[in-house]
Structures are given as C-alpha cells and as structure tokens.
C-alpha cells in the first residue's frame, strides 16, 4: 500500500518510491519527489495560473511516454482546474497552484509544460519564447551563439531576454512581454527567426525542414502559438539522466565551449539556487515586460 503523506493539510498517497526512473544514474522516484519539494519555491511561481500539460513517463524514459492535457482521472477535488479555450472546443486542464498540487503531479512522474499566457487572459501572451534546437553535429554550443544574437536583437526592441537549458540538447530563450496577442507575438518571433537566418545563414534555420537541419540550429518560434506549450523552468526531463530545464547565466551562455557544462542535473540545482537565486525571476515582474515594436 502506498504511504500516505500530509502536505500542507492535504493527504497524498505517494507510490513506488523505490522505482528507478533514471537508469543511467539510479535516480529513484523518491529522489524525484524530493527534488520537486526542494525547488518548489522557485518552480511554483512559473506554474501558477498557467494550464499545465503533463508529459508522463511513469516507468522512466525507456517506458511509455505520453502527453496528458486534460485533467487526469483520479485528480483530487482540491487540485485547481480551469476551462481552457481550444479550437475543437473548451477543455478542462490542471493548474498547479501550491505545494500539495505540485507533489500530487510529481507523483504522476511528469514533465511540466506550460503556455505563454495566464488563465485569466488566455488571448494575450505574457512571454515570448525561442526554442533553439541543434541538428547534429551542431550542439548547444551553437545554440548559445544564436542565443547571444537573439538577446541583442531583442534588446534593440527594448525586450530583455533570459536563457535556460532545454534539459535535452538545446537552449530556450524567454522574455516577458505585454500588450500583444499570442498571434502577434508569434509573428514577431518568426520575423526575428528569419532575421537570424539571414544574419547567420550557415548556422540558423527558421523552418523545421529535416533535410536542412544537420549542422544548424532550428530557431523554433512556433511555440508562441496560443495552443503550444514549452517545458517549464526547473522541470525534470524524461531522459536517461535527471536533467533539468535549468536557468543559466549569460556568462555561461557566452562562455559555452562544450556541451557537458550545460547539462544540468537535479542535484546541481540547489547549489545553483544558493549562488544565483532564480535567474528567471524577472519574467514574473510586470515591470520587466517589454512591448513589441
């Protein structure tokens, strides 16, 4: 029988705590839950008021991996849910608003993916995101080079960008924005991706054309569409090791010369938080939000 744990007055049944979820390191489900409890203070602000899509991997990355957008069966009644507009009709999704909800969701064994808008105003984006995805033999080293160009280009329009690893092989660039719809932000992001390709034609692609990908960085601007989601800061990823989609400093981005230093694992996060705090905290401050030109 699964042990019952009380979290801020909510009773949770936490199951299969000894199961190894990350085979390369022996990282267990208990360690996954401990990780999320440890980073809750910085993770929850990036989750609150954003409908969550769960990418579940209950038997580890080598088992079945599947997306769950609707409220999962068996969701406790105290977990906040909300109706979300979709082209095929409204749906109900989970909002992870507090520590009990976070630990309940973590017990499902999931990546957290969120939209670039808040549930109170789903028609308007409050973030812009670029997913920089390298095609081998390109690596995150080339992604960092592209990220620096995009940071400077965004800064020219009065928009301050921040970086995080994807938790896989790439890099995410994010900025807070205001006053624009998801469609407008998508159009602007596409314009910058096209500009980047023109400026660095041997390095950058703005189209997801597989035959053109080798050796280049695909600047995925499409994740700004209202229906799309991106890996939430601090989420674990379904990989052989417990890699995290982790905020990084611009010094780390500019100094990137090899992929390995940018592979940030769950045990690395607590020391990084002590050293840097939440590097993406400005995204949560409306005063840092820029306006599209």
Question: Which features does this protein show?
Answer:
293 residues; alpha+beta; Alpha-Beta Plaits; 6-stranded mixed beta sheet; 25% strand; globular; DNA polymerase LigD, polymerase domain-containing protein
Helix content: 25-40%
Largest sheet: 6 strands, antiparallel
Q: Which fold name corresponds to the CATH topology of one domain?
A: Alpha-Beta Plaits
Rg measurement, Å: 19 Å
Tally the beta strands: 16
How far is the N terminus from the C terminus? 57 Å
Mean pLDDT: 96
- The CATH level-2 architecture of one domain is identified as 2-Layer Sandwich
Instruction: Tell me the structural class.
Output: alpha+beta
Low-pLDDT stretches:
none
**Basic shape:** globular
Spell the H/E element sequence. Answer: EEEEHEEEEHEEHEEHEEEEHH
Question: Can you give me a brief rundown of this structure?
Answer:
Residues 28-278 form the DNA ligase D polymerase domain. The protein has 293 residues and is an alpha+beta fold. The protein has helices spanning 29-47, 99-107, 140-156, 182-199, 250-254, 266-276, and strands at 4-7, 10-13, 20-22, 27-28, 51-56, 66-68, 81-84, 91-95, 110-114, 124-134, 161-165, 171-181, 204-205, 217-220, 230-231, 247-248.
